Amino acid sequence: MPDWINIILRSLTLLAVLFLITKLLGAKQLSQLNVFEYISGIVLGGIVAIITLDTNANLIYGLLAMFIWFIVPYGVEYISLKSKSFRDLTQGKSVVFIQDGKIMEDNMKKHGYSTDDLLEKLRDNNIFQFADVEFAVLEPSGSLSVLPKRENRPLTAKDLGLKLAPEKEPQTVMMDGRVLLEPLTNLNLNPKWLETELDKQNVSFENVFLAQADTNGQLTVDLYDDMIAVPAPTEIPILVATMKKCQADLELFALATENEQAKQMYETNSLKLQQAIDGVSPYLNE
Amino acid sequence: MTVGSQVKSCYSSLKNVEATLDVLANQAQKQESQQAFFTASQAITEIKTDLQQQVIQLTKEEPQYK
């Protein structure tokens, strides 16, 4: 067998084996790998490279070595899934660097972190003053997780006591001019609905590059032809505006009429409408 | 515009609002939003009934504009 065929065969075999091994070892991101997994990855790659190019080397020996370098990390991962103490040993524990706003110098020293390193890690988290930190912990992966003090945390709707509507994820209902049925069903909608919506916007199916529908079933589209201006969804803004207009009208009628009974009716209804507006406005993202 | 026609136009606007709210209530994905739209739609229906009475009364008062 000529060498070049040998090399092609070796490459294909080892590619398949390597593919299988990486699939089995799991879908962890490279940055999440611990040192052990990192090294075994490199070794596996090295073995494959040597066995592929060196035609004198025994393919079976290579596969054997690969198997060992695969089975040990695989076993370690399997056991650490089951046992917490084993996991602490193989993956390391997180270390508290700042607690109650005070820096733990001993922990830092033990892990070889200088004050500059700590400040740098804090700056990575957009914190330039250690006084702003309530709690910080060094993760086994080497990144620093920081909990700023209460007053330095970003303001959330909860802090303001705002009531927000629950929201489901928007669904992409059309891609490259083709209708995606599954996302449509997720929204309890059908292609007929999509057709009507597109007709409303005066857009043809073939021209749609991307279309997404949100929780309230409002459709936004992007067209292949960028010269055509697509109107933004107007249904909800118009609804809110109409409700407000009617409420103002009712108030106006109440002021204009001289009939006491009618005045009373207009006033109560204007109040009722205002309550209805307040009731739905959180759900309309207004 | 006479008072009668003004009230009438407000009545039609409310009809539109009611219909849109019903559509939204049907399309809403979460129980909570559905409930909110439904309640609002019901309130609008009540207002509509009151306003309809008023429209009838005003038509009687302004027969020349009928």
Describe the protein in words.
The complex is a heterodimer of chains A (286) and B (66). Chain A is built from eleven helices and eight strands. By secondary structure, chain A is an alpha+beta fold. Chain A folds into four domains: 3-89, no CATH class; 95-152, 2-Layer Sandwich (CRO Repressor), CATH 3.30.240; 171-233, bsu07140 like domains (CRO Repressor), CATH 3.30.240; 236-284. Chain B has helices at residues 3-27, 31-61. The longest helix of chain B is centred in the C-terminal third of the chain and has 31 residues, at 31-61. The chains are: A alpha+beta (286), B mainly alpha (66). Chains A and B meet through helix 10 and helix 11 of A and helix 1 and helix 2 of B.
Topology diagram in text:
The complex is a heterodimer of chains A (286) and B (66).
Chain A (H helix, E strand, L loop, with lengths): L2 H23 L9 H19 L5 H24 L1 H8 L3 E5 L2 E2 L1 H6 L4 H10 L8 E6 L5 E5 L8 H4 L10 E5 L2 E2 L1 H6 L4 H10 L7 E6 L5 E5 L11 H22 L3 H21 L6
Antiparallel strand pairs in A: 1-2, 1-3, 3-4, 5-6, 5-7, 7-8
Chain B lengths: L2 H25 L3 H31 L5
User: How many separate helices of chain A?
Assistant: 11
Q: In angstroms, what is the radius of gyration of chain A? A: 32 Å
- Strand proportion of chain B, as a percent range, falls in under 5%
Q: Strand tally of chain A, please?
A: 8
H/E element string of chain B? HH
Give the termini separation of chain B.
12 Å
Rg from alpha-carbon coordinates of chain B? 15 Å
SS content category of chain B: mainly alpha
Shape of chain A: flat
Range of helix content of chain B: over 70%
Q: How far apart lie the N and C ends of chain A?
A: 74 Å
- In terms of per-residue confidence, which ranges of chain A show pLDDT below 50 for 5 or more consecutive residues? none
Structural shape of chain B: elongated
Largest sheet of chain A: 4 strands, antiparallel
